[in-house]
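User: Could you check the structure of this?
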Amino acid sequence: MLVLLALACTPNAPALAAPCAAEVTAPAWVLEGEPVTIVVRCTGPAVYEATASGLPVGASFDGRAITWTPGLDAAGTYPIAVFERPVTGGDAEVVALSIDVVDAVDAPGDVPPDPGTYLREFGLPVIHLFAESELMSEDVPATAWIDGSMHTGRMKIRGASSSNYPKPGYAVTLDDKVNLDDWGLGTPDELVLLTTFDDASYVRQKLAFDLWAEMAEHQGVARLTPRTAFVVVYLNGGFHGLFVAADRVDARFLADMGLDATGPLYKSVNHDANFRRTNAYGDPKWTLHDGYELKEGVADDWAALDALVAFTADSDAAAFASGLSAYLDPTEFMDWYLFVRFASAGDSAGKNAYLYPEPPSGRVRYAPWDMNHSFGQDWRTIRVPADAADDFRWPNEIFARLQDDPTTHAALAARWTDLTTGPFSAASLQAHLDAYDAAIDPAARRDFDKWGPDYFSYGGWAGDRQSDFLDYDGERAYLADWLAARAVWADAVAP
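Assistant: Sure, the predicted structure tokens are below.
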């Protein structure tokens, strides 16, 4: 369970000449049923006396320390104020504490937490979801408690193959907007909860989106990056697991990214989305947009995408080189290629992408999606070696053309070399892993305790993986080793 420390020692009246310097000693969180002691000292030249308000039932304060053993019904966040006043007189100063108590989900007699007060678990935000009927791939009425407030709406199971997981992902649509600026997610009325069931490290999806954002920052360019945050989900009153909350890529997302969001938005959903006139099997396509779904815009508005596919498929080398920039920013598609090449993300080189012809130019923009096949595993969790080198010509004709043209090939090599000094470096990648570990470790362990048996036995991949499954600690170590080796490989090769 979680105890957050003193936020500040701030005056609630004119400041003292010799202000109190608050010192608080507390654990990062506290679990129901476990005793906790929070020491609050005010250090300064004067002698201070203290009183406290807002203490939880059963807690006591002796002027120096709060002691408490929270019961099995005490999960939640508790704001406490400690007032420090000089004995010689003067204005009081306030030490503001927020104590988080984590639900002891497996303890006999545990009481499900109150969604209105159970805001964080192990430091991560908690989303409480209550579905009014059995969850399926179509929306059902639901309520969501977020940051202590209830929102009506609906939810459904999302994903293709992942919709069959024991712990699938979810799409949540709210009837009003919710401010999630503190989570880095803006003010959405829709959230996608990406499952971590297919990733025993729990971080691959977030690492992919963070890497795409870091590439843009490193190069000083603007890219469309879904925003993400780790969250704990309680479903119908019970702990359901650790998820990655993400933007839904839609018109609101495009507007939040500063774009005119009035155009069509396309999503590539299978390997027919290859920018050729033939499909993944080499047969003629029924339409140039085979392999795509229209997610936003006027029905059957395929003109921009069909034009890009026709141009790519029909242009000779000279026409492609001279005309591509009219259809898209070549550097953005270069970065898409470099991104999936470094991540060895074979399922995201043609499909699992959003394409948006940005008004008024109509030049097509790219946003990544569904990155579970990345960083050392494929979509069935089968291992992918750290020296795997795929040029992704088969799934993406634009990638093939960029590599074949001498000018863009040289630009690809230069961009790759530059990225190996920043986002693709071992130090940068390890920094991401360290930050994730600090944020999610206890929540991930709780999740693996719940879902690990299903992960090992899941029929969708257990027969393929056989004996090489890794638990949470093993997968973390595997991913760290893979990324370190991938950085060495990247530094030694060029596209």
